[in-house]
Write a structure and sequence with these properties.
Layout (H helix, E strand, L loop, with lengths): L14 E4 L5 E4 L4 H22 L6 H14 L10 H7 L2 H23 L1
Antiparallel strand pairs: 1-2
Helix pairs in contact: 1-2, 2-3, 2-4
């Protein structure tokens, strides 16, 4: 007898993310566009951190980091819109670094479970 795979009933994991204002979102595992953002985000974090350490006043890389994090967070099951402006009011660059680390660990955990 053939096995059936029904994606409507597959149990998925989420990254629960709580903001200081009480807003809570459940972020899904990444789609292709999010994976591309993760790779670029890693590079932008490195550049933005160097800019901050060097006292560079150009905020383009920092804004890009905020926008990319917002893009990743918009992949939430509640379909809540997370904007760069909202993140700018809620989180500092250290918070975004922590988010990025947690999200990449979450993705790695999913990949590890999927391989087993």
């Amino acid at each position: 007898m053939a096995r059936a795979l029904d994606f409507r009933t597959v149990k998925k994991k989420f990254l629960t993310t709580s903001f200081r204002d009480g807003n809570v979102i459940l972020i899904r595992s990444p789609k292709l566009v999010n994976i591309e953002s993760l790779i670029e985000l890693s590079n932008k974090f490195s550049k933005a951190n160097k800019d901050i350490q060097n006292g560079d006043t150009d905020t383009d890389d920092v804004k890009t980091v905020y926008q990319m994090c917002a893009d990743i967070m918009n992949n939430n099951i509640q379909n809540k819109k997370i904007t760069m402006e909202y993140l700018g009011k809620q989180l500092d660059i250290e918070d975004l670094t922590i988010f990025f680390q947690q999200y990449t660990e979450f993705v790695s955990e999913i990949n590890t479970v999927a391989k087993n």
